[in-house]
Fold each of these.
Amino acid sequence: MILRVDPASPVPPYEQIRSQVATMIATGVLPKGHRLPTIRQLAADLGLAGGTVARAYRELEQAGLIVSRGRHGTSVAAGNATSRRDRERAVIQAASAFAAQAAQAGVDPRAALDRALETFKVS
Amino acid sequence: MSYRSDLLSTLIGFIPGGGLLVWGLVRALVPPSQRALTRWAARYGLHLSDVNRSVVSRYLQRTRSLEMAGAGVGWIASGLFVTGTGQFVPLFGIPLMMAIAGYLLGAVIAEATFIRQLAAPAGMRSAALTPRALVDYVPRLTVWALRALPAVLVVLAVLYALTPRHAETPSDVSPTLVLAASALLVVVAFAVDRLLQAIVARPQPAINAELMAADEAIRASSIHALSGAGVGLVLVGIGAVLFALQYASTNDALGAWLGYPATLAILLSLLSWVRLGHPRTWRVRRSSQLLSTP
């Protein structure tokens, strides 16, 4: 469960955070009730401003994917449990988005796949 | 300067303190042995690899040498006090308190100077999606002890200031000194608490699983050293005030009884410093969730 943010990417950092967390929730990597780090912790770990992470969390909350409970922190919202078929569909969608982004950035598909495999190793 | 005070200062201050200082300096020059590394890693449930071994080795070399040298300097300082004032330290446990304070200072310096080496490289940024909390790294009881014991110390110090004195009391400690020293210890305990929170909050290098596991173990080890010394320092302060109360009490029965909790507090301070600061085993509570090695 490693989140990655590429400062050189044209995609804004808050959107990178939002989309990765949303994908992890959709694919069941982040299960219902899983507690997320505080905005301050995640911002410090990623070397980003607190407002950037706060915006990503706010959008995820508005989408009903996460819920903030004040002092109890932020956790994955109830009701996101998905079936195996839904999860596979979400993975296919994520893979399509990944392939499209790699092609758009002009990255060789094999190099992009190698990078994805490296990501699997650390997460 | 009397012969007695010279001898006392040498015996209680310079010899053990000098020994600790030399030990600390030797540790600064000699990297930890393979056995020491393996033992430390086993204590924190860390799998040593080519990726994290050098980081752990550098961490242990720096922290152990600075903590030991700090304890030595603190112990020597109590000897210097005896030499300078020409009298035996009236508060029992002062050499121990100074040694723990020196150790604590060494641990703080080690932490402050080592964290830079754990910084993630420039470029892609990464983070684990798992919250960190102080109680993941240290028993909850330790956290509460660090927050509650300073209150006990303040109550005892105020009690000491209000206690009527024997005319022939053997204690030279003024209530103002006891109150000031207690206030200082409260400030130190508060600072240690804040420092522990800062260690928990410091960025984690989520570059790969092995380095993250090493970071978790290092974080836990630093938190143990600081909290164990912090609790120990307050406990030795409580013991010292209880001994001062024992000497000052006009009630002989109460005075005799106070020696027991005072001795217990001193012994607990040693136990805290040694066992809370260096537990035989400790695994970061969420490590199985976070650090499942592929």
Note: Helices of chain A lie at 13-26, 39-46, 50-62, 84-104, 109-122.
Amino acid sequence: MGIFDFLKKDKEPAYDPSNIRITDLKAGFILDYDLKSWQVKEAYQYDWGNHYFTREFLLDSGDEVVYLHIDDNEELDLSISKKIKIRALDVDLPEYILKHEQPPKKIVYEGKEYYLDRESPGYFSDEPDNEGSWAELISWDYYDKEECYMVTVEQWGDREFAASHGKMVKEYEFSNILPGN
Amino acid sequence: MSIFKRLFKIGQAEAHNIVDKLEDPIKLTEQGIRDLKNDLDQSLKSFAEVKALSIKNRKEANDLRNQATSFEEKAILLLQKAENGEIDSNEADRLATEALAKKEEAEQSARIADQNATKVDAQLTQLDQNIKKLRSNISHYENELKTLKARAKVSDATAKLNKQMAQVDSNGTISMLEKMKEKVTEKEALSEAYADIADSGRSVEEEIDDVLKSGPTPSSSDALAKLKEKMKSGKA
């Protein structure tokens, strides 16, 4: 070992390379989930106020794209979801929300009932590492009776709506998390 | 050996001695583990790059298959339009053939992308083995470090205790205690001697005075006279 070898060393990573956790995830990382390898294509951040932040990642397996939502404020809550058409939930849902200023208490999607759990106004950023611009949104989260599956309805601006359908997942379902450059 | 060589050797020996003293086995092991983790991080990043290539190949294959399906659908649509008389059948056949050729081309490219992905996956297995070895090394040295820290703690505590034990001069303490005992005995003897000197130094007048002073008190001389009378009367 040379005496000045330390000068050549790279900066140490923020995570432990021998134990990379799902909470260490960043854009460019690779992970295994559901018998497939996924690349983290994009990272997003939500600010729900009172210093309550959650993160979301766009995962691409090559033949499928999903969103991984991470809430590690109290206990670690993870969910995997896919975007769906807002009118797949109810053809009149956007109009219903505009009229009542909130969606219905119950939604039926693919024959399953989902119940409104909470309404969360917040801000969204697609540049979590920079002080980028934040977009305002309102999110309504619905869960089934067992709270295993979920539907999320979002309102962006005055008349723009988005929806997603997903399920709650556990940390152990993810493996081989690899750092990206 | 020349004088300069000898001087250099002395300097070398001294420098090594200083460095040896500076070397803390725990700190150096911790640094070693940090270095290993950095190596692991670099390996994981290379592994991730190869995996990303595999995902990219699969995505490409998937896109090409979708493209092939799309060309086939277009060919069908062209033939349907020709059947409905919306376009000339010869033109429709020509375009449909072109579309089917494109479909075949896309399928061929998809197969190549799949093969590439499979080749990359094979490379991943080899890389995975190396990473497992590195992980195992790190885990081994982390456990070693725990043992090393525990041993160093025990050794420090033992050294401290031994040092304290070595510093205790039991002979000195005992001799000091004996000396104190002797000192007390000497003091007692001195006090007795003073008392004797005090007794022997009195004058005759002082002795008489003492006798007179210690003479019977009026009440006790009355009691004596009564006793003497009682004895006389007893004799008579």
Note: The helical segments of chain A are 86-89, 93-100.
